[in-house]
Amino acid sequence: MHCGQQKCTPICERGPDSGCFCPEGFVLSDQLCEDIDECVNECDQMCDNSFGSFVCSCKEGYKLKDHGKCVEAEGGESPVVIGVVKPATNNHTQQGAAAPAGGLVWIWITVIVALAVFIIVIRFYVVKRQKRREEHSIQQSTVPVDNVDC
Length: 150
Known about the structure:
- It contains 1 helix and 10 strands; from the N terminus they run E-E-E-E-E-E-E-E-E-E-H.
- Residues 79-83 and 87-100 have low confidence and may be disordered.
- The protein has a 3-stranded antiparallel sheet with strand order 1-5-4, with no helix packed on it. Strands 6-7-10 form a 3-stranded antiparallel sheet, with no helix packed on it. The protein has a two-stranded antiparallel ribbon with strand order 2-3.
- The chain has one helix at 101-142, and strands spanning 7-8, 11-12, 20-21, 26-29, 32-35, 46-50, 53-57, 62-65, 69-72, 82-84.
- It comes from Champsocephalus gunnari (Mackerel icefish).
- Its main location: membrane.
- Residues 2-34, 38-71 form the EGF-like domain.
């Protein structure tokens, strides 16, 4: 699931125990998924809230450490460090599947192609065997039979 705006329509399952789910970084509110403003609680100094995520950064002389905390930079370290901190998943959001949908499509295409090749090979084998039987039966019928009594 992806939402590139402040509010999106949730994905709802059908059935008796169905529920609605939002992308990571969004919360279900009044039948809509709304972007969580992670900047309220996540970053010490500077924060840029984006749809479904956020970026913490520190002022000059500080560096980013441990999920949005800014600490003083030491002598040889870079004075400004910017890092991305992902929001924690809560009960109102659902993470997407580990395998992308496109990957599953390619798996199905591969299975179907393999099955088609298997059917073609079996068909070829059966036709070849049938031709051999026909040739063998024709050869047996053309062999002359001696009916000589001894």
